[in-house]
Amino acid sequence: MTDSAQLYDPNARRDTPLLAGLKARIKRDGPIGIDAYMTECLQHPEHGYYRNRNAIGAKGDFITAPEISQIFGELIGLWCAIVWQQMGSPTQLRLIELGPGRGTLMADALRATARVPSFHAALSVTLIESSDALASEQKKTLSAVTLPLHWQSDFALPNENDQPTIIIANEFLDALPVSQMQRDDAGQPATRRVGLDADDQLIFIPAERENAEIATNVDTGDLVKGLLQPLKIAAALFIDYGHTKQGQRDTLQAVRAHKPEHPLTSPGEADLTNHVDFTDFSTRSTASGNLIAEPITTQAEFLGNLGLVERAQRLIKANPDQTNMIEMSAGRLIAPQAMGTRFKVLGLRSPHLPPLPGFD
Hints:
By secondary structure, this protein is an alpha/beta fold. It is built from 12 helices and 18 strands. The radius of gyration is 21 Å and the shape is globular.
């Protein structure tokens, strides 16, 4: 990943609708943490990035795996059906997707599993989405689905701990607000914050040394604790870009119109994300002993284990005129220089369940 500081251009700063409110808050209360800055930029009720726009797709700011190839959602759907069988094929199953994008993953997953009618008969689907614009898009995408579909904007699930549950989350963890700590050469920690410089412009503080070690800390443990740990029969799948080893680099990044920019350039109008520390996430998620984590793997290995190449070949056989498109989109999902190794996969399960598929 390129350090966002190398992309900084003071002349590129944009006077967005959110900027005035951020400056007023900083002047009133002092510098704010990275977590507070991300929350304001992404979830502000009026000017937040995810509140009023559909950012996904060629006309948006970024493209996710389900939008690249239908194979991605199909394989995730089949993964869910296999896990359901590992649970003993219960007659009721709650399937939850965190951050469902435009609903493409869920649509492809449900289409691929339609050949398992007993699985569909057991399903109740919940989509957790904070963006009204995206929720509206999801309802259009899933308009033909006859299964029970529920939408909600928070994580307060009904207290049905006895109901078997599967949670899937693709490119969700990266958008969670984080705090960042810097360590200087003397080893002294300091919280990285957003403040104002002498020209009344947003800046990161403190940044006393160029080579300061930067560590991110996402409260993903609390997220999993609230969603998964109370459940008696549960499995979860998290796919995101991230790392398994801490490095001395800035993990905060911004993207607008498919191009990277400095995170302070367009507050509220650029997608702010963090590279996920999967090792930390796995450790936090399993700390209580109520969950077991599968070995962290890459997206290429995971999708390969689920049969991506075989599925692509079947698609090509059925649609020979689309051979090039199918090969290119499937390759983009697993190529090392694309998403194959940049994206990691973590599976979590209740202790009594067998190992989850795809992590061999």
